[in-house]
Batch of 4 targets.
Target 1
Amino acid sequence: MFVDRVRIQVRGGDGGAGVSSFVRQRGRPRGKPCGGSGGGGGDVLVRASADASSLLKYSRQPHWTAGNGSHGEGDFRHGKVGTDLHLDVPLGTIVYDEDDSLIADLVTDGQEVTVVHGGRGGRGNASFVSPDRKAPTFAEQGEYGEAIWISLEMKLIADAALIGYPNAGKSTLISRVSAAKPKIADYPFTTLEPNLGVVALGDREFVLADIPGLIEGAAEGKGLGHEFLRHTERARVLIILLDPSELQETGYPEQLKVLLSELAAHSPDLVGRPYLVALAKIDTLDALDEPLAWASQAGIELFPVSSVTGDGLDELMFAVADEVDRHVREAPDREGYVLHRPLRASFSVSRDSGTWVVSGRAAERAVNLADLTVPEAADYSAKRLEYLGVDAALADAGAVAGDDVRIGDITFTYAPAESND
């Protein structure tokens, strides 16, 4: 089963919690703080792999989570970092974030992009020691990993692509010139998914793709081919296969016109893509005088072929190989890319049913302590919020003393600094 577009949920691993612990010595009941920090959660990365051929496994399993970090322990023992999760995808896969914004185009083996980060591990009490805080009694909780939905869209990377009407003979042709074994039948839209085959010509070889049949209006969604038009975008060379048989209601001159029009409607870039024109099923014709005369008048180099008898296939394949070689020399390989997304604001303030809501990782980290009922921990958290500017932002938004403020799962009573004097 060929799957070339999926939507999956990815979740970073949770960070481990820090611990509050002290060295126990005779005569020093509390002793020196020695609580270790928790390990950070693993990240989720999407990685292009030459060994992946489809997105099928992601359609069957839409939820993926990286490894969690382990908790810290006493005696300065820090938790283990969670294992990163690498999701291998076929070369030519495009990655979109949950807002359908493009974030990466992965075309080379091993190219990768981090799509979500794991939660930060909580710090143990040993990390909070300072000149003013000799023996902190609090530690941080571990953070939850990010969780978002992303979309993966695969575009086949082929040297040449076969384009034609349904039943034009594309599948039969690719089966004759390569080891590909597509489904072949005599009814329209036999090919419901692209097929790839490697064509070997002595010491030369290239990858040939069989694109499902196109009809007029395919770029607007008619027929089945519109789902696969994007697979032509990666091909260096296009082979337009015309069908002169009586099975087609449209004559081959009109077929060429329609196919070129549909390619242009899908992507203007395809208009300038080099292409060869082949006339299939010549074994069903009494003579080639008429199509050759048409091609000559139209200024087209026509390659008559028969996948049944094999006539003309070598000439066509050598011409494709020459065109691919020329394209490689003149146009270097397409490079993938990863877009750098802007950093999110550290926090934001909004109003929800009479409660002020402060959202953002920076603010949530400020209150992410194991026990805020400990006065020392509450004081530390208040200072962090003030340093981040949360107090000032709430005041600017119109918060007054006594208002409820929610940060994460915790609700506070807002008390401006001047009311604490």
Note: Confidence is low (pLDDT under 50) at residues 187-192, 217-225.
Target 2
Amino acid sequence: MSFVRILVDGYSLLHNWPELAPGRAPYCAEAREQLVNYLTQYHDATGTPITVFFDGSGRHTSACATRSTASVEILYSRQGQTADQLIERTVYRMVPHGMVLVVTDDHAERDTVVNLGGMTASSLHFISMIQQALNDVNHDIKHYNRRETRQFNRPR
């Protein structure tokens, strides 16, 4: 299925992916940077735009906060609003343009997204989607390289 955009509850995904920054807090800058790195690779493999939402009211929005890239948009909520509110507003605006996938483990948020016309995935399911897409790309590259090597190593 093709999605118009994937919306990710950043801290929900980070809490379920401790391998991104082993031994560190899931909200640390290193974990956020690793997450953006993996999401960028996933975007490169699938071509689907990704927006990551973080609850930003508090200590995590310092000057060294993770910034958007060309592949992955990063948004922080303001004081008095939550990432969930931003996700809901975005789903509402994007659903008329096509299917939107929201990645969160918040069951109430998932129900709201489905009622708005979007689709949802758990963090663990999305992590497996990322890993599968990256494995597929690596397999394709190895296959391509073998084929190219055989082509250029043939006697003429």
Note: Helices lie at 10-15, 29-46, 83-94, 107-116, 123-153.
Target 3
Amino acid sequence: MSKSKLFINQLSKLVEEGLYNYKDLSNEFISVLRSKREELIYKLKLTTSEETEILIKRIENLEKKVGKLEKKSKKKKTKKVKR
């Protein structure tokens, strides 16, 4: 019986170490994939959703200002009639 317990203990240690190694390996794999994703985003010069929303709001504000300036310039361009 003692030999079978020794064998079972050794087997359980191997399985336990294998699980730890698997978890470490999977964590390392995930971190490598994240870094590759960040590299790709940097190379493509993509923005985050927050940055995109901010840029959209800025563009809308600029379009409103341009529209106001166009209206003002149309009003100022009235021609005087010669007498």
Note: Residues 2-70 form one domain.
Target 4
Amino acid sequence: MAAGELSGRRIVLGVSGGIAAYKSAELTRLLVKAGAAVDVVLTEAGARFVTPVTFQALSGNYVWTDIWDARRPANMAHIDLTRGADAVLVAPASADFMARLVQGMADDLLSTLCLARPRAGMDGAVRDCPLLVAPAMNRQMWENPATQRNVAQLVEDGVSMLGPAAGDQACGEIGMGRMLEPEELLEELVAFFEPKLLAGRRVLITAGPTQEALDPVRVITNLSSGRMGYALARAAAQAGADVTLVSGPVDLAVPRAVTRVAVRSALDMHAAVMQRVRGQDLFIAVAAVADYRPAAANPHKIKKSGAPLSVELTPNPDILAEVAALPDAPFCVGFAAESRNLDEYAEGKRRAKKLPMVVGNLVQDGLGGSDNSVVIYDAEGRHALARAPKEQLARDIIAHAARLAAAPRSA
């Protein structure tokens, strides 16, 4: 995640009673690191697990615990705290707290401010402050029909449910009910704020290098880290798309809500793409696919000798060109990594393969790194993007592709 992805956002973080409250301390740190201003509201039970002092040190703000606290103007903390806030996130949300939300209870500060979230002003203008909850409880409490009824009612009321997850629980049992990890909650919150430019769309993305076997232990490959492809998969998922990521060998975590298909060689990637491309709305070919492979891989390790070694290479299939040539081809985005003459080669690739959009970059500007400088080429011309983290570039590229894909296609 790039620093500053929540810059300018103000989050009210509610912490109810539960052992998962210790995760909320780390969540507070991550929210602040992402650029958000965080106001923490502790319930009486929550304060028994983590003290207000801890959250005050991590957030840099006063921590609210008492509905009668007079520090707020006019003693209206239950109303003022959500004014101007971008979201209220309750993490952990205990079974008891969710039940009280359903019933509209207002017997402490956190439940009262959730009930008093601004919806529509006297002037009719909507000033919505979304409510998100991250459940955390024992698996039997989660599976109880009463809890499931409450969850369904909260969703119907427009509350966003983040989790829970399955796994080891503090009580020693294993099952559903664990609160999502702080990093996961941060990802969910970032995704929540992103415009859903690709809602209902299916996106297929290739990423990373390929490895072409010389023998059982040696391969021909390249320096691609896969970061741009993974950043694009993350951005597309945040934009509401159903994303499948066909990935060569990389050491990167799979983005939230993305299905990864692991492959190794160019032929593997070709087969995986052609098997899945039907019904896709967008195809984004980011992978640094090897142009050639050994004509025949040696079945045994090639032993070192003093003699020169010659390897016959044969061309790999051009996955992007093949997809773009399909009669019902999805909207195709190509990538061109060049060492020189970027405009000439990238625009030439777009025209030769009849692509609506190509993203070009010079390898010396970002191959394998976390930042990059890119230029988008389309029928309207050349669009240079300022150097930025790949996560930011990915959002800009996805927004550009979504705009072009939504436009009527010329015959």
Note: The chain has two domains: 10-193, 202-406.
